[in-house]
Amino acid sequence: MTNNTITVTSPLLPDLEEFNELLKEIWASKWITNNGEFHKRLELELAHYLKVPFISLFTNGTLPLLTALQALKITGEVITTPYSFVATTHSIWWNGCQPVFVDIDPRTGNIDPEKIESAIGPKTTAIMPVHVYGKPCDTKRIQEIADKYGLKVIYDAAHAFGVEVDGQSILNAGDLSTLSFHATKVFNTIEGGAMIMHDEATKKRIDDLKNFGFHDEVTVVAPGINSKMDEMRAAYGLLNLRQVDAAIESRHQVAIKYRQALKSVKGISFFEDMPGVRHNYSYFPIFIDALEYGMTRDDLYFKMKDAGVFGRRYFYPLICDFSTYRGCKGTDRLPNARKMADSVICLPMHHELSALNMDKVVELITR
Ligand SMILES: *Cc1c(COP(=O)(O)O)cnc(C)c1O
Predict the structure, then answer these.
(1) pLDDT single digits (tens) 314-365
(2) What CATH number has the domain bearing residue 298?
(3) For residue 315, is the peptide bond before it cis, meaning its omega torsion is within 30 degrees of 0?
(4) Among candidates 168, 126, 166, which has minimal Cα distance to 145?
(5) Which of 91, 182, 184 to mutate to test the pocket of ligand 1 (most atoms within 8 A of CB)?
(6) Which end of the chain has fewer CB atoms within 10 angstroms, the N or the C?
(7) Is residue 202 domain-shared with residue 267, that is, in the same domain?
(8) Ligand 1 centroid to 154 CA: how many Å?
(9) Are residues 302 and 159 in the same domain?
(10) 143/206 same-domain check
(11) Do the Cβ atoms of 206 and 67 come closer than 8 Å?
(12) pLDDT tens digits for range 247-261
């Protein structure tokens, strides 16, 4: 990477001096992992910030997905979306379950609730939707279907940090929700993640499961895993939490400018804000209609790349098109997901994207 390149994202980093002060505290305490003071503080502060009753920190955003399915004893088939990051489906596979893919609603990129019922069979035990780009799923409709058929709902909320609908956190929907705090996400702990649950008993069980299943020195409640967050990253997270609102507001300003600059470009479309939703502006996807725009998505993508502007074809390919998932159920009826995957480019979007660089991105698209 040279200084002339414009990256699709840039990590939110805490002030190095402040981080160093916290590291000194950790060094003095000699307590570096296993539910330390910073870990406990970050859980409390995140629960407060996110307006959720209980949260359990993890070492990344994939292991809480795996652990959620374990905790709910999910078996058989799990209904999910092909328009996501591979980790969503991987977590189903690692639990010995089969993914069943359902098409998306082109207005949001999220699983289309109206297509879920026809995918439910005798082996279905759960639905795993994703709040794609942080746009809230139709959680009410999904819950109605889940209740009707006695299914669990696990939300992959990796993109949905801080997203609220009518002042309520989207993370309280379903049985469990999971977050990713990977470096590329709105809020990061370098690597990291979390699970959100409704009650204390579930939190205790999840806390055990992420620590090999140990409940106490001599009791293992289930075959758990090791997915604990260490003190360094918890401290880093505490510092980032203080600046995440400012970062989201900077992203909001980027979104406003992109929309203004691109609204009259023929063949380019993008999402508007949804009424009553507090968005986190985690991504800025644009969709290219090759006929109207006069150039294919890939041609534009590579033209930008050649000019040092790194967008991301996110999500492309669809999860069901990776060879390892070929032949899974539902793969042959995904027209909306296919269309979106073939037309999307996520533009550079982060808290410190300069006006100059934004102009450069826009110029490449409008020229
Ligand atoms: C980032 C992401 C994950 C995985 O999170 P990691 O922290 O990278 O393990 C899972 N699902 C979605 C939708 C993601 O974007």
Answers:
(1) 999 999 999 999 999 999 999 999 999 999 999 999 999 999 999 999 999 9
(2) 3.90.1150.10
(3) yes
(4) 126
(5) 182
(6) C
(7) no
(8) 14
(9) no
(10) yes
(11) yes
(12) 999 999 999 999 999
* Ligand 1 neighbours (beta carbon < 6 A): 60-62, 84-85, 87-88, 130, 156, 158-159, 180, 182, 193
Count how many domains the chain has: 2
The boundaries of the domain holding residue 123 are 16-239
Measure 213 CA to ligand 1 centroid, in angstroms. 23
Dist. CA 361–CA 60, nearest whole Å: 31
Q: What is the pLDDT of residues 107-123, one digit of tens each?
A: 999 999 999 999 999 99
Residues 328 and 361 placed together within one structural domain of the fold: yes
Name the phi and psi angles at 84, rounded to 5. -160, 180
Indicate which residue's Cα is closest to atom 5 of ligand 1.
61
Write out the two tokens for 224.
């758990």
Q: What is the pTM of this model?
A: 0.97
Strand-strand pairing, 176-180 and 152-156: parallel
